[in-house]
Amino acid sequence: MSYADKTLTCRDCSQAFVFTSGEQEFHASKGFQNEPSRCPDCRSARKASRGESGGYSSGGYGSGGYDRQERQMFSATCSECGNEARVPFQPRGDKPVYCSDCFSKQRSSSSSYR
Ligand SMILES: [Zn+2]
Ligand SMILES: [Zn+2]
Q: How far apart are CA 18 and CA 27, in angstroms?
């Protein structure tokens, strides 16, 4: 059985969204027959607003929700500049730790070097 990505239209916000082959496979494995009628944003918005009377038809409140969760940050010393680096994992000492400045410098230097 092979699946191909499909573009569907959300019935809530009328935006096109992709129903990927992976999702189709997952769907089929769960025994679902119907294609999703809403985009992932609207689906999670509906989930989040479950319990309320529903009826959010006008889009307009922000999507996402990732910035809500706060991760514990550990303090370490940046191996590049020596400033304080805050990292979301416990520094172990066998790997260099970078502050956010040096980290983004490292990442950008690989693609665009100036
Ligand atoms: Zn939608
Ligand atoms: Zn640094």
A: 14
Q: What is the pLDDT of residue 68?
A: 56
DSSP type of residue 88: S
pLDDT at residue 59, as a whole number: 46
Residue ranges covered by each domain of the chain: 1-48, 74-111
In the structure, ligand 1 is a single-atom ion and the residues with CB under 5 Å from it are: 10, 12-13, 39, 42
Report whether 99 contacts 83 (CB < 8 A): yes
Ligand (nearest to CA of 79): 2
Distance CA 93, CA 110 (A): 24
Whole-model pTM above 0.90? no
Ligand 1 geometric centre to CA of 1 (Å): 28
Q: How far is the CA of 64 from the centre of ligand 1 (A)?
A: 13
Q: How far apart are the first and last CA of the chain?
A: 48
